[in-house]
Specification:
Two copies of one chain form a homodimer. Chain A has ten helices and 16 strands. By secondary structure, chain A is α/β, with parallel strands linked by helices. The first copy, chain A, has a six-stranded mixed sheet, sandwiched between helices. A six-stranded mixed sheet of chain A has the order 3-2-8-6-4-5, with helices on both faces. In chain A, strands 7-12 form a two-stranded parallel sheet. The radius of gyration of chain A is 18 Å and the shape is globular.
Chain lengths: ~350, ~350
């Protein structure tokens, strides 16, 4: 078989990997943000009808998958795989959310890079002939993340200016061999990058070096430049992490100021909603992609975008033990034009 | 491209996916067990030279990967991907263990099924032409698992008879397009199966239905029967879970008593080492495969085996909230004969 590897990190896919359907769901703050019109469901109840926030996060994933199936005219039995994960310990948002669907399941942990990781693996499984239809999905929930990573929500902890707000949102993208696009043409797998940041209230700074590393690999191995894309979008670096990525590229003489943004800066009105550095969490990039971005591509607003969500691979335990915060970034190129055969 | 899908869950691989190298590492109790001779490294220090048990678990993964690379005459830069995960919250055993290697990384969470999941995905990435060499790896540590899932070790908690002992061990398997075998010929992806077991001290019973479900899918979709394999090995069901799987198949008129065993029954001397129902943890199946089982195949003790580790997809939070324990099982067929082209 002819190699599809353009370099160590980037794979070029054939013509057969298309977005078939996508859906997203958000909570109250997401319904008050600038992307509200791009959600399939907006729920004002932070429990999503369940008894606990964790069960609510599972319900979000259920509803996102159900809605993506419905929009694509599909049923759960049509899917060969679902690749998914979340931020909760042991990824219970995903495993409890998915258990009633009876779909073959590969569980992922990529922190907030999970939407990129799940799309990359699903796209390769389809391109390689191992699946006809596969779903990629993830979620995050402000209340489950706060009490797991930081403080119980009722404590009303003071937030630092560099801090971000974990989105209460989920997104699901169903990929298939047949479809009208957008198409996934390339995927770039990230390496773990750790520049020694130990401030757990500054995830943007911790993850920015990973975004720079993966985007640089993508541009190098595909022989492209930022202007070859209509939009380059990282996942949840927020305003500060975004600025760091722009600075890193500027040092290489590459201008990222024209068409580079971050889902954490898109999902909320940073000033109006008092979101400090911006949105974060797996659901931030998942909901932005599976709504605003993919819909925008279908409406021809953009022809070719790079979607590159980043994850911070820490746990409260690793931070308590004095460790720094490793980051990772997985990138996926979407195009309205089919890839090469 | 011709489909490689034999059914919804099982994929048949071409001739090109071979074990290139493998290595394992164990702790003190593993060094006292019946498989001691099949370890590459046995360490008496439960901290593995680090300051904390969690950092020790990362060190185990580092050493397992390093040893597998060394045994295969490879360096980290030869690997296109590493697919790995562990039981710790946010999989920090893996992310901190891998961060110095600079290998493109896809993080997985499959609980104790991770060795099967990582092998399955790595094998498909190689078969599909997306990678030349990829490592699959996981670990578990008795002390990190106890304090995360149950009680702090110094508390000296009483153990129920159905309980298992989390292995302090890691295993790494490097797969490639070129190699002298054993070869991976088939992979079967599991579904989440939840039969409502809520006893967190009886993981064997919680996971057995998932093992039965995946093994049944494998046999059905490959048109094989248990006697077509020299050995069928689940991951860490222990003695009780093993018995349940035998019973389930007996109800279907299928005899599993001849050649079916479980890594949790192999790794320790259950009575002599007072291990109650047997070994468990991601490291239990990973260390048994990447030592005793693969070495046994290379020595022609077995020609064809099914390796089917199971995972319990719970967290302490889900149990505190009254949830049952969903299970999953991913199966991989190893053969000394190459798969079909």
């Amino acid at each position: 078989m002819e190699t599809k590897r353009l370099g160590r990190q980037t794979v070029q896919l054939g013509e057969g990997v298309s977005v078939v359907s996508f859906a997203n769901i958000g909570g109250k703050l997401e319904s008050q943000g600038p992307l509200a019109d791009y959600f399939d469901e907006l729920e004002q109840d932070s429990f999503f009808g369940a008894k606990t926030w964790e069960q609510g996060e599972s319900a979000m994933q259920q509803r996102a998958l159900q809605r993506a199936l419905q929009k694509g005219g599909l049923s759960a039995s049509d899917l060969d795989y679902v690749l998914a994960g979340d931020l909760l310990n042991q990824c219970i948002g995903t495993s409890f959310g998915l258990r009633s669907f009876e779909i073959p399941f590969y569980g992922l942990y990529g922190a907030c890079s999970t939407m990129g990781e799940s799309l990359a693996l699903a796209a390769m499984l389809i391109d390689g002939g191992f699946a006809r239809l596969a779903a990629a999905m993830t979620s995050s929930h402000y209340c489950t993340a706060e009490r797991q990573y930081r403080m119980p929500v009722p404590y009303g902890n003071q937030r630092t200016p560099t801090q971000q707000w974990t989105a209460t949102a989920a997104g699901c993208c169903i990929l298939g061999k047949q479809g009208d696009g957008p198409y996934i043409t390339h995927v770039t797998c990230g390496k773990i990058v750790d520049k020694g940041i130990t401030d757990v209230n500054n995830m943007g700074a911790a993850m920015a070096p990973a975004a720079y590393d993966t985007l640089r690999a993508l541009l190098r191995e595909t022989h492209t430049k930022p202007s070859d894309y209509d939009l380059i979008v990282t996942g949840d670096l927020g305003a500060l992490g975004h600025e760091i990525v722009v600075d890193f590229f500027a040092q290489d003489g590459i201008d990222m100021t024209k068409n580079y943004t971050d889902c954490g800066m898109l999902l909320y009105d940073l000033k109006g909603q008092d979101m400090h550095a911006g949105g974060s969490g797996c659901g931030c990039s998942a909901a932005t992609l599976n709504g605003y971005l993919l819909q925008g591509m279908r409406e021809q607003r953009w022809q070719r975008i790079v979607f590159a969500p980043t994850g911070a691979l820490l746990s409260p335990t690793s931070s308590f033990q004095g460790e720094s915060v490793p980051g990772i970034c997985h990138a996926v190129v979407f195009s309205n034009t089919k890839g090469e055969a």
